[in-house]
């Protein structure tokens, strides 16, 4: 089965994971013919190297995987996965090497080697399976791998098959699988139930805008996750150029990552009261599209001047955050593919986040390092508040000048998040080039770090 470890079996081939600097010492402990074979085949313990060592009767006796050096591993993720891609099909069991905190991360990388987006073009993944080491939490790693695969599938699917209605169906399916209570508000009912900005952004699409919600868990801290579900972003009347529109199927990456995090939480039964809110829209062009210069009134009552219809994500999130804040959760988290400024600041690999809570930030940073899921704290810089106050309305959705775009967007969202503990993630949700266990395409970002950190943050 994809994203699952192989059951223990005597037929599993022993696998030795060897750092380059440790190779000579390892060879000294082997039979002369093994050492000769390894040297003859040029195995040097480099990342990405793999080698079968023959035994009696011409059968493989063991397999070797290169693990490079700590410095080389720091330049990427899932170093063992680079060798997995070169191992023959079969079942393997770790025999030596790969000790310490990297063990679970590398086992996760192995499972993620199974991933292939094959909805439109069938692919045949190689059956290279790993027996779960006894000292790892196999169920947790499997849950994380399956959730990551779900995130990738959601983001990779084009809007023709992942519009607001299909995103709702995916959320409903996840909720049903875990016994969560699901509901949604669709179309003009958004106006009746006071979600005016979600309606305004999505009303020009042929697929009605909606607010998706589900709840799970009866006890523990209240945790609310809010994900931006802009299933395609043309830019609206401030139309994007063609090159900027190419990847806009991924503008629901915040929603996909929130669903992935929720899947992990529910599968692993974290002791929280979970609430998931996803404003799902398509930002399209039509005669009823919202316009530059319009002033919208939000659920919270704050008015927003529209200076660019391409800054729509913060508008739909604002109504959802206002709803979430009404219950005063112990922790509220928003995730969104919100600004290009965040990519300029930290690139595609790091998830920038904002919070006023130093303890939460420290816990998250520690968790991110432990699970190799990089994040970076950005400032809610108060002097920039005036940039989002245009004068004609309470707020401006697209301040002029172009400076600090990610920070001003985060400050905008904070106005709607209430007075409780709040964290905002301005993610990319896309892997721009293929790496071991990380093919080009949709990607989970910061959700492994959050899974690790949430119990401590929510309970503190």
List the helices and strands and how they pair.
Elements: E1 13-18, H1 23-28, H2 32-40, E2 50-54, E3 60-66, H3 70-73, H4 79-84, E4 90-96, H5 102-112, E5 128-130, H6 138-156, H7 164-177, E6 181-186, H8 189-192, H9 196-202, E7 210-216, E8 222-227, E9 229-233, H10 242-245, H11 253-267, E10 273-283, E11 295-297, E12 303-305, H12 313-325, E13 331-336, H13 340-346, E14 351-355, H14 358-371, E15 375-378, E16 395-396, H15 405-414, E17 422-426, E18 430-431, E19 441-442, H16 447-459
Helix pairs in contact: 5-6, 6-11, 9-12, 11-16, 14-16
Family: Belongs to the peptidase M17 family.
GO cellular component, one term: cytoplasm
Protein name: Leucyl aminopeptidase
CATH superfamily of the largest domain: Zn peptidases
**Helical residue percent?**
25-40%
Low-confidence runs: none
Biggest sheet overview: 9 strands, mixed
